[in-house]
Amino acid sequence: MVNVDDAIIAKYEYSGEHFEILVDPDLAAEFRNPDGQDVAIEDLLAVEEIFKDSKKGDKASEEAMNKIFETTDPIEVSRIILEKGTVQLTADQKRQMQSDKRKLVINKIAKEAINPQNGLPHPVQRIENACDEAKVKFDPFTSVDQQVQTALKAIKPLIPIRFERVKVAVRLPGSAAGSAYSVIHGFGDIINEEWQQDGSWIGIVEMPGGLQDSFAAKMAEISSGEAETKTIK
């Protein structure tokens, strides 16, 4: 539980009524992040009290809470305030959250998109530059998936790009196949596989187009350079 002196205010106004709670700035930001981890309300509150004016210490009346929230439970009321109200984040917090969300969005595009002109992934730096040129704005409180679509639409006039899944054939020596199996599943789905008479393993893996280069490099690493990979057209 955060110290009251270090807490920030979360506010909610509805039908002429005003409510405030005191919250941990980092945990409140994490709670409101659609891509973040679950945060318990009890952990982010400085005090389990609902205020009309927290600076004056004026508590909200039970009548007002029942009228707006149909409950006086401070945990449930706090949840609604955080979900529907506003949180006074610091400027540094906002900058950091925007930077983090930008990185997540760009990395997801790099992972799943290809250049349709050659079927190859775009480097992350190219996607970053296109986003900067298109002046894509990143919202810390909007999900990665939503912002990926917004960013993709904005940069399409600048670079040839589309989301596509590809099939990659891979051959591994028997000595490496066992340890590689769980790694392969981290890249995509094995849609066909068989063991060869010489003990080697051959499979076809379907994965996001942007991962094919990383996949080839990882297979080479696991097999000490003996892996063979080929994107199936």
TrEMBL record:
<dbReference type="InterPro" id="IPR019783">
    <property type="entry name" value="SDO1/SBDS_N"/>
</dbReference>
<dbReference type="InterPro" id="IPR036786">
    <property type="entry name" value="Ribosome_mat_SBDS_N_sf"/>
</dbReference>
<dbReference type="InterPro" id="IPR046928">
    <property type="entry name" value="SDO1/SBDS_C"/>
</dbReference>
<dbReference type="Pfam" id="PF09377">
    <property type="entry name" value="SBDS_domain_II"/>
</dbReference>
<comment type="similarity">
    <text>Belongs to the SDO1/SBDS family.</text>
</comment>
<dbReference type="InterPro" id="IPR035647">
    <property type="entry name" value="EFG_III/V"/>
</dbReference>
<protein>
    <recommendedName>
        <fullName>Ribosome maturation protein SDO1 homolog</fullName>
    </recommendedName>
</protein>
<dbReference type="InterPro" id="IPR018023">
    <property type="entry name" value="Ribosome_mat_SBDS_CS"/>
</dbReference>
<dbReference type="GO" id="GO:0042256">
    <property type="term" value="P:cytosolic ribosome assembly"/>
</dbReference>
<feature type="domain" description="Ribosome maturation protein SDO1/SBDS central">
    <location>
        <begin position="105"/>
        <end position="164"/>
    </location>
</feature>
<dbReference type="InterPro" id="IPR037188">
    <property type="entry name" value="Sdo1/SBDS_central_sf"/>
</dbReference>
<dbReference type="Pfam" id="PF01172">
    <property type="entry name" value="SBDS_N"/>
</dbReference>
<dbReference type="InterPro" id="IPR002140">
    <property type="entry name" value="Sdo1/SBDS"/>
</dbReference>
<feature type="domain" description="Ribosome maturation protein SDO1/SBDS N-terminal">
    <location>
        <begin position="8"/>
        <end position="95"/>
    </location>
</feature>
<dbReference type="InterPro" id="IPR039100">
    <property type="entry name" value="Sdo1/SBDS-like"/>
</dbReference>
<feature type="domain" description="Ribosome maturation protein SDO1/SBDS C-terminal">
    <location>
        <begin position="166"/>
        <end position="233"/>
    </location>
</feature>
<dbReference type="InterPro" id="IPR018978">
    <property type="entry name" value="SDO1/SBDS_central"/>
</dbReference>
<dbReference type="Pfam" id="PF20268">
    <property type="entry name" value="SBDS_C"/>
</dbReference>
